């Protein structure tokens, strides 16, 4: 039986696609001097609801130490702030600042333009199908 090429493995293809997507997003927002992780955090907290660190870590796909390091950087730039939860003093919530809202609006335009270029290359139907299949893969793998 012939050896299977690395590029035949779904895990490899997903990792490669993730790498390319992350690189594209990073390049599209480079002028704002933020990382792709910063964009994910700012996008997540842009609803102005206040997010607990644990929930936020899960949402933005970062472990707690990495999230804390990134939040520290965003706080130092005045883009987010931390506050104690009024209902649970053990909990710290992260809120976006007005400056952060202004930045996330600019970032959204850049990231949307990047995604539009990918959609144009794949076609609308293929893009929707890819999103559907990836969503299904994520849901199914979480059930395990």
Automatic annotation (TrEMBL):
InterPro entries, A to Z = HTH_MarR-typ, MarR/SlyA-like, WH-like_DNA-bd_sf, WH_DNA-bd_sf
Keyword Transport assigned: no
Q: Which Pfam families match?
A: MarR
Which keywords, in A-to-Z order, does the entry hold? DNA-binding, Transcription, Transcription regulation
Report if keyword Magnesium is assigned: no
Q: Which GO terms describe its molecular function?
A: DNA binding; DNA-binding transcription factor activity
What GO biological process terms does the UniProt entry carry, in alphabetical order?
Answer: response to stress
Protein name, please?
Transcriptional regulator, MarR family
Q: Which SMART domains match?
A: HTH_MARR (SM00347)
Residue ranges constituting the HTH marR-type domain according to the UniProt record: 7-139
């Amino acid at each position: 039986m012939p050896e299977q090429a690395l590029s035949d493995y779904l895990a490899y293809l997903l990792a490669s696609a993730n790498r390319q997507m992350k690189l594209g997003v990073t390049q599209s927002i480079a002028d704002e001097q933020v990382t792709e992780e910063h964009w994910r955090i700012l996008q997540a907290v842009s609803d102005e609801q206040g997010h607990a660190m644990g929930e936020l870590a899960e949402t933005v796909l970062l472990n707690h130490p990495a999230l804390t390091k990134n939040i520290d950087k965003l706080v130092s730039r005045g883009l987010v702030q931390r506050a104690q939860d009024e209902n649970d003093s053990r909990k710290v919530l992260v809120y976006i600042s007005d400056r952060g809202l202004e930045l996330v609006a600019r970032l959204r335009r850049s990231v949307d333009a990047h995604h539009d270029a990918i959609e144009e290359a794949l076609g609308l139907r293929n893009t929707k199908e890819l999103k559907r299949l990836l969503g299904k893969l994520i849901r199914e793998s979480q059930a395990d």
